[in-house]
Design a protein that fits this description.
alpha/beta, 2 domains, 50% helix, three-stranded mixed sheet, Rossmann fold, N-(1-d-carboxylethyl)-l-norvaline Dehydrogenase, domain 2, single chain, 14 helices, six-stranded parallel sheet
C-alpha cells in the first residue's frame, strides 16, 4: 500500500504531533532531524522551544494542527486524554485519508472505538504504543506495537523506521493489548532486578560486579541493560513515569477480569501493580519505574535516597 494516499516523503508528508513529554519530545525531534515538516500543538509552548529551534511549527489548537497534517502522532498520558483529544477532538477536524497514530499506552476497547470513528470520516487510526524508554526514544530504537489495518501500517513504515522497529500485531486494539502484555513482563523484570540488587547488597556484594557477572547469563535482560546502572547510581529520572506503569498494569488486570469466558489470572502483575502503587503512595509517581528498588529497600529496612 505504498500509494496510500501518496508515498510518504519528507518533502511532502505533513506531520502533526501532540504530546511532547520525555518520550514524545524525543520522538518528534527524530522526525525533525529526518527532514520532516512537523507541526506541534502544546498547551505550554515554552516547553517546546527546543523543537521549534529544530524547525517545528506551532499550531494554535488541535483542530488547527489536524487541518494541516497528513499523519498525526499522539503521545499522551492517560486513556481519558486520548478520548478527549483524539476521539472527541481530532477526528472531527482531520482531512480525508489522514492517519492518526496513537503512541499512548491506552485501553484496547478505546482504540477500537477510535478506529471505527475514523473510518466513518474516511480516515485511519493505528494504535501503536512503544517500549524502550527515553533512551530508545532518543536513539530511534523503540519497539513499536502496531494495531489496525496492516496495509496502512506498511505505508507508515518510513516514519516508524525513524523511531524504531515496528511490528504489526493485529487489528484495532491489538497494539494496546501487546503493550499491556509487555508491561506485565517489564514489571516482573524490574521487580526481580530490584530484589536481586537488594539481596546482593545485604550479602555484601559489589552491586556493579554483581550486574556484570550475571548479565551474560539467563538473568540478563534488556531491563537490566537499561536500568541496572541507573538503580545502582540512584538515577530515578523518568523514561516512563511510575504512575503510568500502575495505569498499564491496572488495564491488564481489568481486561483479564472482563474476559469472563476466558479468565486470565495474573498474580505476578497484581503484585507488581501493588508495589508500583506503593511508590506512588510514597510520593514517587513521577519517578522512573526503576525506582521500584526503593520500595524493596524500604521493606528491608534499608535507607532509600532519591536522585
Amino acid at each position: 500500500m505504498t500509494s496510500y494516499p501518496v508515498p510518504i516523503n519528507p518533502t511532502q508528508t505533513r506531520i502533526g504531533w501532540i504530546g511532547t513529554g520525555v518520550m514524545g519530545g524525543a520522538m518528534a525531534s527524530r522526525l525533525l532531524s529526518a527532514g520532516y515538516a512537523v507541526t506541534i500543538y502544546a498547551r505550554s509552548p515554552s516547553k517546546v522551544v527546543h523543537l521549534q529551534s529544530q524547525g517545528a511549527h506551532l499550531a494554535d489548537s488541535p483542530a488547527d494542527l489536524a487541518r494541516n497534517s497528513d499523519v498525526i502522532f499522539t503521545m499522551l498520558g492517560h486513556p481519558s486524554d486520548v478520548r478527549q483529544i483524539v476521539l472527541e477532538g481530532l477526528i472531527s477536524s482531520v482531512n480525508p485519508n489522514c492517519v492518526i497514530i496513537d503512541h499512548t499506552s491506552s485501553h484496547p476497547v478505546l482504540a477500537k472505538q477510535i478506529f471505527d470513528a475514523a473510518r466513518e470520516k474516511n480516515c485511519w487510526t493505528v494504535d501503536a504504543p512503544v517500549s524502550g524508554g527515553d533512551i530508545g526514544a532518543r536513539e530511534g530504537k523503540l519497539a513499536i506495537f502496531a494495531g489496525g489495518n496492516e496495509d496502512v501500517v506498511k505505508w507508515l513504515k518510513p516514519l516508524f523506521d525513524v523511531l524504531g522497529k515496528v511490528t504489526f500485531v493485529g487489528g484495532p486494539g491489538k497494539g494496546q493489548s501487546c503493550k499491556i502484555a509487555n508491561q506485565i513482563v517489564v514489571g516482573g523484570n524490574l521487580l526481580g532486578l530490584s530484589e536481586g540488587l537488594v539481596f546482593a547488597e545485604k550479602a555484601g556484594l559489589d552491586k556493579m560486579k554483581f550486574v556484570e557477572a550475571i548479565k551474560g547469563g539467563a538473568a540478563g535482560s534488556k531491563v537490566m541493560e537499561l536500568f541496572g546502572e541507573r538503580m545502582i547510581g540512584r538515577d530515578f529520572r523518568p523514561g516512563g513515569f511510575t504512575e503510568y506503569m500502575v495505569k498499564d498494569l491496572g488495564m491488564g488486570l481489568d481486561v483479564g477480569a472482563e474476559q469472563s469466558d476466558d479468565v486470565v489470572v495474573l498474580p505476578g502483575a497484581a503484585l507488581s501493580k501493588q508495589l508500583f502503587s506503593a511508590m506512588v503512595a510514597n510520593g514517587d509517581g513521577k519517578l522512573g519505574t526503576q525506582g521500584l528498588i526503593t520500595v524493596i529497600e524500604r521493606i528491608n529496612g534499608l535507607a532509600s535516597e532519591r536522585s
